[in-house]
Amino acid sequence: MSSKRILLHACCGPCSITTIDALRDQGFEVSAFFYNPNIHPLQEYLRRREGFLEVCEKMNVKVIGRLDEYDSKKWFRNAAFREANRCFHCYADRLERTLSLAKRGGFDFYTTTLLYSKFQQHERIAELGKDMAGKSKCEFYYYDFREGWKEGIERSKEMEIYRQQYCGCLFSENERYENDLKKN
């Protein structure tokens, strides 16, 4: 009996570790895809991409898709004047791109490491993923990967994978550090 094939959208290396384990434990053959035009600046994007590649190499996960696909201008156009709802547009862009690649690659399912983070809008991501899949042959696979949160943190430290301090976009970076403006 062959494994079910799943395409995992990965936002970074640390969020991928226990997500990959959970999917494999459930019988999936996992391939990973890194598509995150929301991550700024470009230097931060490159650090996260490198962390993702390190995890995939160490965990023997096939990476598919173009690793140079980074259209920050498109991302900023989508976020402009929608700052309050920027996360929805960001999730939609990444899930839509992942689903498209999963369909072309003949995957049975697709999912995302965004379901791992305690800082993301979990229910919204799950609903969006299911809605996008609709009645296509490639289903969105929902799982609460937050169960592996603490273990993922520890393992990423053990593996010496770069750990970021904000979601990725400039808005989230500002939110993360805005209290520093009030110091002094």
From TrEMBL:
<dbReference type="GO" id="GO:0046872">
    <property type="term" value="F:metal ion binding"/>
</dbReference>
<comment type="pathway">
    <text>tRNA modification; tRNA-queuosine biosynthesis.</text>
</comment>
<dbReference type="GO" id="GO:0008616">
    <property type="term" value="P:tRNA queuosine(34) biosynthetic process"/>
</dbReference>
<keyword id="KW-0411">Iron-sulfur</keyword>
<dbReference type="GO" id="GO:0051539">
    <property type="term" value="F:4 iron, 4 sulfur cluster binding"/>
</dbReference>
<keyword id="KW-0819">tRNA processing</keyword>
<comment type="function">
    <text>Catalyzes the conversion of epoxyqueuosine (oQ) to queuosine (Q), which is a hypermodified base found in the wobble positions of tRNA(Asp), tRNA(Asn), tRNA(His) and tRNA(Tyr).</text>
</comment>
<keyword id="KW-0408">Iron</keyword>
<keyword id="KW-1015">Disulfide bond</keyword>
<dbReference type="GO" id="GO:0052693">
    <property type="term" value="F:epoxyqueuosine reductase activity"/>
</dbReference>
<feature type="binding site">
    <location>
        <position position="11"/>
    </location>
    <ligand>
        <name>[4Fe-4S] cluster</name>
    </ligand>
</feature>
<feature type="disulfide bond" description="Redox-active">
    <location>
        <begin position="167"/>
        <end position="169"/>
    </location>
</feature>
<protein>
    <recommendedName>
        <fullName>Epoxyqueuosine reductase QueH</fullName>
        <ecNumber>1.17.99.6</ecNumber>
    </recommendedName>
</protein>
<feature type="binding site">
    <location>
        <position position="90"/>
    </location>
    <ligand>
        <name>[4Fe-4S] cluster</name>
    </ligand>
</feature>
<keyword id="KW-0560">Oxidoreductase</keyword>
<dbReference type="InterPro" id="IPR003828">
    <property type="entry name" value="QueH"/>
</dbReference>
<keyword id="KW-0671">Queuosine biosynthesis</keyword>
<keyword id="KW-0676">Redox-active center</keyword>
<feature type="binding site">
    <location>
        <position position="12"/>
    </location>
    <ligand>
        <name>[4Fe-4S] cluster</name>
    </ligand>
</feature>
<comment type="similarity">
    <text>Belongs to the QueH family.</text>
</comment>
<dbReference type="Pfam" id="PF02677">
    <property type="entry name" value="QueH"/>
</dbReference>
<keyword id="KW-0004">4Fe-4S</keyword>
<feature type="binding site">
    <location>
        <position position="87"/>
    </location>
    <ligand>
        <name>[4Fe-4S] cluster</name>
    </ligand>
</feature>
<keyword id="KW-0479">Metal-binding</keyword>
